[in-house]
């Protein structure tokens, strides 16, 4: 009887938390709300809020952290496999999809004292700002910025952190992104669950704007890469990020990283 009472009280407390989270969503710093069929339906549920963009001053301030921030615990599996591959062949080129202002490059180069060939793919305005703000820092380095996804075809290794969930047509994008037959794919900070098919939620980003956001079904996500000719080599949990959807606590959402290898890649035991 006592256990039943405890369970009822726990469910009631969680209900109160969900109600609060749901109604505080429009003013949250990072929050998620709702289960939707697609991006259009998620966007239609957005509270009325004018989207904001980062000023050049804020961007410049934020880019300074990429030179000082150490590799975090959640990044170690990602960088372990990347270093393993680059140690095997120093001429491998890295394509960093959604890589912001090159943070991963600077972290890796600082930790390994190397200058790998690295292309960051970002939105046009971010590429413009990166080339302007970082023009002194990238002199003499193998770091380049582009908005051309097909530039990935020149690279051997595709890396991406926390970006795929924002792509509306992920499968179509992957076919384009991996069209050059890149041998290796390293991904991290991706939201996964095993309860439902892949769905879309709505994210409040820094209390500035709202954006649709995929919550992937793990088996479906892995199958996308298998269908494209890859095999899963390694998978790890990212305990840093978390999502609790109000009124959907039955869905256990956790973040994962993945290492995929092209089945025809000739790379021995790596």
Structure description:
This protein is of the alpha/beta class. Helix content is 33%, strand content 28%. A hairpin with a 3-residue loop joins strand 7 (199-205) and strand 8 (209-217). The longest helix is centred in the first third of the chain and has 23 residues, at 2-24. The protein is globular. 30% of the residues are buried. Residues 50-58 have low confidence and may be disordered.
Short descriptors:
10-stranded mixed β-sheet; alpha/beta
> What's the helix-strand series?
HEHHHEHEHEEHEEEHEE
What are the low-pLDDT stretches, counting only 5+ consecutive residues below 50?
50-58
Tally the helices: what do you get?
8
Biggest β-sheet, characterized? Answer: 10 strands, mixed
Q: Strand content of the residues, in percent?
A: 25-35%
Instruction: Report, as a whole number of angstroms, the end-to-end distance.
Output: 55 Å
> Oligomeric form of this entry?
single chain
- Could you estimate the helical fraction of the residues in percent? 25-40%
- How many strand units? 10
Outline type: globular
Which helices and strands appear, and what pairs or packs with what?
Layout: H1 2-24, E1 30-36, H2 39-44, H3 56-63, H4 76-88, E2 93-97, H5 103-112, E3 117-121, H6 124-133, E4 143-146, E5 157-161, H7 170-177, E6 184-193, E7 199-205, E8 209-217, H8 218-227, E9 230-243, E10 253-262
Parallel strand pairs: 2-3, 2-5, 3-4, 5-6, 6-8
Antiparallel strand pairs: 1-7, 6-10, 7-8, 9-10
